[in-house]
Automatic annotation (TrEMBL):
Membrane topology: Multi-pass membrane protein
Keyword Transmembrane helix attributed: yes
Source organism (scientific name): Streptomonospora wellingtoniae
Signal peptide positions (record): none
Protein name: Aromatic acid exporter family protein
Length: 386
């Protein structure tokens, strides 16, 4: 706990968690005071519940989710009100209300708030059944909408006024995490290949790790989207002395790393198939050695991508461009033939050889790495021209 608190003093996940807890507590408390002490509502918990839901990681998400939530609750209450007043508070009415609410909840526009349609309908039905007159029933249903509206407004307002969340660093962190995962895989691959070792147990592990990169890619995309959204409707953007960064470079870098992870999965699959067919005795050890040099050069690029820092990104991009040029030289050497164990020249460009596939995949990998470096370079140039 002490270590966690010390980390919370610095900018990062722990501090963001504390801020979310603190703001949620404040919003819920204010909403409870308004609904219970001021309005003396029959079901005051609707307001603080709604307020807590609206404390999102960005102001944009708070507003977007409040609109969806209000729509979902409004739909649930409207369904109950319409069917209840027509059919009465019976069991058949409850079943019909549930069915209609579940159908409406599947509307894609409601997003993650779709489940709130049937939840609101259930609460509305419960309050409808307890009411003793038509006027009281209408009043109770209207109070649900009013309390939800108050809770949403308080939640959005608290998130907007109390330390509005800025997530500039999340884009940088997303790229760094994804690049680090790719770098780890490349760094584990090139030493055995340089020794000419193709062991299926090892290549199978590479293949599995490459296939698991998809989840890291998804997290990186989410981090960049969060960074972009944190700028929208955020009053802190007008108080910052530094310029608001553009995220096009980070978006492009994640997209390029996404394609790189796909190509890397293809490389590991081909190596695994080659290991299976050659039983650990590769036909072209010289090619594997050159391929190892190429992968090592790519590992150096991803290592630099995993160290991206907004304050030093201009210098880092220059180094990335230089390293991309070095990896291009290693890629150009891959098509050279080498002498086999029995003095027979082994061609790596033959269509029947698995190394021909590796050669094509190496070319694609090189293109994607160069594209990622170019995108970051153009992003830096755009920042300088602003």
């Amino acid at each position: 706990m002490g270590q966690w608190i010390r980390r919370a003093r610095r900018e990062g996940h722990e501090r963001n968690t504390l801020l979310l807890i603190g703001k949620s507590t404040l919003a819920a408390t204010i909403a409870w005071v308004v609904s219970y002490n001021v309005l003396q509502a029959a079901a005051p918990a609707f307001a603080p519940f709604s307020a807590v839901l609206m404390i999102q990681v960005t102001i944009y998400q708070s507003i977007a989710q409040s609109v969806r939530y209000l729509g979902a609750v409004g739909a649930g209450v409207a369904v109950q009100g319409l069917i209840g007043f027509l059919a009465g508070p019976g069991l058949v009415t409850f079943a019909v209300v549930t069915m209609v609410a579940l159908v409406i909840g599947r509307w894609p526009r409601l997003g993650s708030q779709g489940s709130q349609v049937v939840t609101a309908a259930f609460f509305a039905f419960a309050m409808y059944v307890m009411a003793t007159s038509t006027v009281e029933r209408a009043t109770q249903l209207g109070s649900i909408l009013l309390l939800v509206l108050i809770g949403c407004a308080i939640g959005v307002l608290v998130n907007l006024v109390v330390v509005p969340p800025m997530r500039f660093r999340s884009a940088e962190h997303g790229v760094r995490s994804l690049a680090h995962a790719v770098c780890d895989l490349l760094s584990d691959m090139h030493p055995p290949l340089r020794e000419g070792e193709l062991i299926q147990e090892r290549t199978g592990q590479w293949r599995q790790r490459a296939s698991r990169l998809d989840s890291t890619v998804a997290q990186a995309h989410s981090a960049v989207r969060t960074a972009e959204e944190s700028v929208y409707y955020n009053p802190r953007r007008f108080l910052l002395r530094r310029r608001i960064p553009t995220f096009s470079g980070y978006v492009g870098a994640v997209q390029a790393l996404d394609r790189i992870s796909y190509q890397l999965a293809s490389v590991t699959r081909t190596l695994d198939q080659a290991a299976s067919s050659q039983e650990g005795r590769p036909e072209s050890p010289g090619f594997l050695e050159r391929y190892a040099d190429f992968l090592a050069a790519l590992a150096e690029i991803t290592a630099k991508l995993s160290e991206l820092d907004e304050k030093h990104i201009a210098e880092q991009v220059e180094e990335l461009t230089s390293r991309a040029g070095q990896s291009r030289e290693y890629a150009s050497r891959l098509s050279e033939g080498d002498e086999g164990d029995e003095g027979v020249t082994v061609s790596v460009t033959g269509g029947s050889s698995p190394y021909a596939t590796l050669l094509v995949e190496a070319s694609r990998l090189q293109e994607e790495f160069e594209h990622a470096c170019d995108l970051l370079k153009r992003s830096v140039e755009q920042e300088r021209s602003r």
